[in-house]
TrEMBL record:
Its cofactor is Zn(2+). One of its GO terms (molecular function) is zinc ion binding. It comes from Coleophoma cylindrospora. This is Carbonic anhydrase. Keywords: Lyase, Metal-binding, Zinc. Belongs to the beta-class carbonic anhydrase family.
Length: 179
């Protein structure tokens, strides 16, 4: 198997960082250390420019869980949120979409047409799939909050605490989305 230079570089970087790594406690050890399990979940985009740990300056003390997917859409994240809530007891969900998101640059039809060119035998399946294109940033946050609140898998008490924001990648500010 040929060496992939990106993998080689990543492994080298990891070895350098691991040399100073402090062991992270297992979940089973947290209570004994007086550390509460994470109870805030941030749902946001996979865009590498949008890292909540940086734009919210989240320290390990805040300890949120970050779930990321294209545009930070709620639908695909519901199983993750429900499982994490059942396991850890999530108390807050923040949905954060951002300016200049790639999902503002494509349409559902564009993605479907390109996929059907590559996979013509999957045309019907592709037509029935939602790929997450958006045309209004604030409305997409509202739509995702509605999806969370309507899901039978999200506890009513948690659904009521879901809050939406937009993040401006130019100013660095997050703004609550009016509902």
């Amino acid at each position: 198997m040929a060496q992939n230079p990106i993998v080689t570089k990543m492994l080298e970087q990891n070895r350098t960082i691991a040399a100073n790594h402090q062991p992270i406690p297992f979940f089973s050890e947290l209570a004994g250390l007086g550390v509460k399990t994470p109870n805030t979940l941030i749902l946001t985009c996979v865009d590498p420019r949008v890292t909540p740990e940086k734009f919210l300056d989240l320290s390990p003390a805040v300890n949120p869980i970050t779930v990321r997917n294209i545009c930070g859409h709620a639908g695909p994240a519901i199983p993750d949120i429900a499982a994490l809530d059942a396991f850890m007891g999530i108390e807050n969900v923040f949905v954060i979409h951002h300016t200049d998101c790639g999902a503002l640059s494509f349409t559902e039809d564009m993605i479907k047409n390109r996929l059907k060119e590559r996979l013509p035998e999957k045309g019907e399946e592709i037509d029935g799939t939602v790929f997450g294109a958006i045309n209004n940033l604030e409305q997409s946050v509202r739509d995702d909050l509605d999806i969370l609140r309507a899901s039978p898998y999200i506890r009513k008490e948690l659904a009521e605490k879901c809050i939406g924001f937009t993040y401006d990648i130019k100013t660095g500010l997050i703004t609550p989305v009016a509902e």
